[in-house]
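ESCALATION

Customer reports they have been waiting on this structure for their group meeting. Please prioritize. Original submission:
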Amino acid sequence: MDKHQQQQLSLAKCSRQKYSEWIFRDVPSDITIEVSGGTFALHKFPLVSRSGRIRKLVAEHRDPDISRVELLNLPGADAFELAAKFCYGINFEITSSNVAQLCCVADYLEMTEDFSKDNLGSRAEEYLESIVCKNLEMCVEVLQQCENLIPLADELRIVSRCIDAIASKACAEQIASSFSRLEYSSSGRLHMNKQAKREGDWWIEDLSVLRVDFYQRVMTAMKCRGVRPESIGASLVNYAQKELTKKSSLWNPSSQTKVDLISTEHERLVVETIVNLLPVEKLAVPITFLFGLLRSAVMLDCAISCRLDLERRIGSQLDVATLDDLLIPSFRHAGDTLFDVDTVHRILVNFSQQDDSEDDLEDASVFESDSPHSPSQTALFKVAKLVDNYLAEIAPDANLKLSKLMVIAETLPTHARTVHDGLYRAIDIYLKAHQGLPDSDRKKLCKLIDFQKLSQEAGAHAAQNERLPLQAIVQVLYFEQIRLRNTLCCSYADDDHKPMHNSWRISSGALSAAMSPRDNYASLRRENRELKLELARLRMRLNDLEKEHVCMKRDMQKSHSRKFMSSFSKKIGKLSIFGHSSSRGSSSPSKNSHRTDSRVIERTCASTD
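Update from on-call: job pushed to the front of the queue and completed.
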């Protein structure tokens, strides 16, 4: 655009300016225009020659000496002052900061081509179409000016034209940026360089100054135009950080002032709007951002649908979350838990059910494979570890009920945990913090642990843990002896392959790989001696049990002292007390063994009490 065209688009010096200043310099005003925010003493002739509305108002009055006209619905005194200057031929420029006001005031005053050639309305419209709509920054500035011009700015399609221009410009910038990242590989194929910096998202910072309703309309238009989900997500993150973190009431919910209440309403609207604008694609926004929105939604008491949507989105990608993400503070009454356990439970339910959902948010192809190495299985292992760490973090809470702890631990399927060390640690912390827990509740809690899936270190700790029920300790010692026996059998390279217990193959293999056969054998012998001492202590605690089982005692007396360990383990293995283990992989006991076990447990508890 050359200099001559720019002068035509701006309101350059009018040829009537000097004439108007000369003709009206000493003429007293004959009309007073009252608008919202000011009063102007002017002259009828320059106004009625340009404005159809003022001409009609003057013509409707029979009194030719009318001197007062009210235009209370006119959008602002500043806009009327510019229109009056135009009528008088006074020089000023049309810019992006006043073009929206000029369009509105020109429409209200009917300053169209029907009353004067090159009137204010056509001048403002030409500037809007030819200059503003071709520049994204100017469109954003015009939208800011339109915030105080609603609904007239919407009726004149100023807002919609600027929004469409922004969406088109952002889409064009994205396409241009994508082309700039195309390059040829060593094989001669054209591909996208993902390492190159994206330069098509510079508009993200510009849009953060918009009011939330205008911002929502811009994002919706961008989605329709096909802007990348990652760009939409980055813009949402940037907008939320500016609109939510700058408000003090979000972190001071006890304030009851009028200003804080209004700010809270604004923040609630921002959160709900951003949630509605979130892309459906997985990982379009960081999961930490989703958890931040969820915390804000809980704190601001947003709509239930908003919170459930966030929980569903988080559940679909929970495998990339961290422990800090799950620690959502509870904002309820003082007697509640420190962290919001119910929300985390709903997130885990969404994660567990995502494979069965036909309306899942993410691409279904990600979870098509059911093989052990599929992404879903890997995600399950990660979430199981995350849940165990979460349980250990909330376990010391004095207000945490046993039912809530158990429902969190039982949400994931049984095959999610290959090792139960984390679950055992969490339960041990809970038992330590709730020492007044009844024996029945402690037994119920320990049934969650599969003692066959404890590592060597965790098993050694559990065998000496007095907080565990006696039944659980017996199971630990039994499975520890099985593991050591299988490991000793595998340490002889020349021996025949003997069956091993499936639960200890990984553990014994890792131990043998880490040590030489001779050191491994010596270490296992030392551990065997330690377990003998543990079993001796156990026999002291089970004196009453041994008296009731006369047959077992007779067999032990007949056996040699060096075979005591082997005989004892065989008898212990026949007891159905291990049939109640939480392990789903162990075989079920017989009915007679079950009845014997019940009597054994009752007498054992009576003797320990």
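Sent to customer with the following note: Residues 236 and 498 are 61 Å apart (CA to CA).
Escalation resolved.
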